[in-house]
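Annotated sample (chain length 419).
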Amino acid sequence: MATEVSASKRHLSFALLLLVAIISYVDRQVFTLFQDDIKLELDLTDGQLGLITGLSFALFYTLAAFPIARYADRGDRRFTIALCVIVWSAATAFCGLAHSFWQMILARIGLAAGEAGAGPASQSLLTEIYPIERRTIVISAMLAASAIGISGGLALGGWLSQFVGWRSVFLILGLPGIGLGVSVWLLCAEPRRGKGNLTIPPPQIEFSEVLRIMVSNVSLRWVGLMLCMVPLTGFAFILWGASFFQRVHGMDKAETGFWLGGAMALGLVIGNLLAGWVSDRYGKANPRFNGWFAGLGLIAAFPFALGFALSSNAYVALGCFVVVKFMMTLHLGPIIALCYAQVSVAMRAMMSATINMMIGLAGTGIGGTAAGFASQAFAADYGEKSLQPALALISGCLLVGGFAAIMAGRTAKPLETQD
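Output written by the structure step:
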């Protein structure tokens, strides 16, 4: 049962947290549009770009996520989210002031640390104030908001590139987020707060016990394999997609922002919302359905991933990209709901942080970095088109991830009762 919060407060909180999810990915994704300019001005290689966009971000995202999620499971989630938004917004603005590889690394670390806590705390808060029958659609709507941020970051960055340089773009996009953080603190619901004082939340499961539960659960182990595989492909495409269209298909930044941003929005938003609706309709009574639904979508995405990477026609590549993102996006909302069905309320934020950790390390950390170094390795033979074989190679992870999702559904053991 959802915690009692007025409908107006619930909807206002939902709207603000949707905006937080959008802005987080705008700030993160806009970097990819300008990374070739940053590479040239800071004298970087593709491998160094991969470290900036990938490994450094993912490692510090992971390091920050767990202590913040631990606090969010017992503390004031509204304050947590607000502070995270302010930190990452300031870090985004600092990206525009960086003049070396290490300064840019530090800015990305600040961005990662801020973004690490907002997602788990937001999901924990929303799943408490919304009833169970609307939980998956709420989660999927948050994921769709992130998708809007990814595509919006590209489109907005591409439009701004016609008027200002990349440094000014980071300042323009970063600073307004500080006001959003203040708004979250002042206006969001937090059921744990009474008249200015925190109420006593349910006892929190120790982190060691969280790990023990996750490792001992066969279904969650399969989820872990899926979360190690799928983001390798997904984030390699997201982090290098803008450079791919600029290098391989000769698009300028405005064109890239418009076409790639639109393709991401179409695939990701529709996929997330459809996944939430299907999962709520068919997966509520049978959570195992979610694993099958996710797995089949991932397997179906594989041939289109190859089409995206290898096509010589920009618009065929864009069409394949839409299908890939649509089919891939069907997995995450249902899989999160499948995980939540197997753990108690007291460890949901920690579970969300674990999922984010695995996605971050595998996708942003390994996928983005590996694609950069693979492109660098293929450059001797393929020149400016080295991203084509690099992204084609990494597409095979979708098949492993699809099989793992199906097995996660087959072996799931939902708890008897969930609030």
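Annotation: The CA atoms of residues 15 and 191 lie 17 Å apart.
Annotation: The two ends are 5 Å apart (CA to CA).
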